[in-house]
Amino acid sequence: MVKGRNRKHEHNVLVLGCSRLGASLASLCSQREESVTIVDQNEAAFVKLSPNYDGLKACGNVTDMDDLSMVHVKEMDQIFVTTNDDCTNVMCALLLRECNEHAKIFVRLIDPERKQVMDGYAIETICLDDLWVERCSSLLQKESENTQILRR
Predict the structure, then answer these.
(1) Confidence check: pLDDT of 147 > 90
(2) Has domain 2-151 been given CATH number 3.40.50.720?
(3) Whole-number Å distance between alpha carbons of 91 and 93
(4) Per-residue burial over 108-121, b = 16 or more CB atoms within 10 Å of its CB, e = otherwise
(5) In terms of DSSP H, where are the helices of 12-64?
(6) Nearest-5° angle of CA 57, CA 59, CA 61?
(7) CA gap 36, 97 in Å, rounded
(8) Tens digits of per-residue pLDDT, 85-117?
(9) Are 13 and 77 in contact (CB under 8 A)?
(10) Does an H or E element contain 15, and which?
(11) Sheet with 12-16, side-by-side order of all strands
(12) What angle do CA 90, 56, 85 make, to 5 degrees?
């Protein structure tokens, strides 16, 4: 069942999984006045959404094509797969790529070794471990640059 209203804007955004991450992304997209829909199999998860969330909410299984067609997955421009389970996210992303060739798909992965499954499918993977390493590397680089400046 789909609840809420959706606006027609430049981007149609779909968020699959109303984890803290999914709820935050959907709320951000809503704040930016994107046309956003969030799907989770547990209706109680929607309490994590911002009180100002103004998109659609749908209760359904993110790996069930009937449930995904209910939220017009083929019309989506950007899809974020954010459940707390890597296997579900990988399977869902691969199903989505088969039914929507033009969408930009982003997949949350906890285990960085699972990224290789996405190779060749034009699916963007985002892994917390990789983000940590990137950020720490950037901070260490800045610290090193500042130290070199002080030594001069």
Answers:
(1) no
(2) yes
(3) 6
(4) bbeeeebbebbeeb
(5) 20-31
(6) 125
(7) 19
(8) 999 999 999 999 999 999 999 999 999 888 888
(9) yes
(10) strand 12-16
(11) 2-4, 56-59, 35-40, 12-16, 78-81, 104-109, 123-127
(12) 20
d(CA 56, CA 114): 30
Task: Report the chain's terminal Cα–Cα distance, integer Å.
Answer: 65
Distance, in Å, from the CA atom of 115 to the CA atom of 138, rounded to the nearest integer, reads: 22
Q: Name the residue type at position 87.
A: C
Amino acid at 6: N
- Other CB atoms within 10 Å distance of the CB of residue 78: 17
Q: Which residue has the tokens 């992304």?
A: 25
What is the spatial distance between Cα 13 and Cα 7, in angstroms, rounded to a whole number? Answer: 11
Q: Tell the residue number behind the tokens 């103004």, with chain if given.
A: 54
Give the Cα separation of 75 and 73 in Å (integer): 5
Q: What is the pLDDT of residues 61-75, one digit of tens each?
A: 999 999 999 999 999
Amino acid at 122: A
Q: How much is the pTM?
A: 0.84
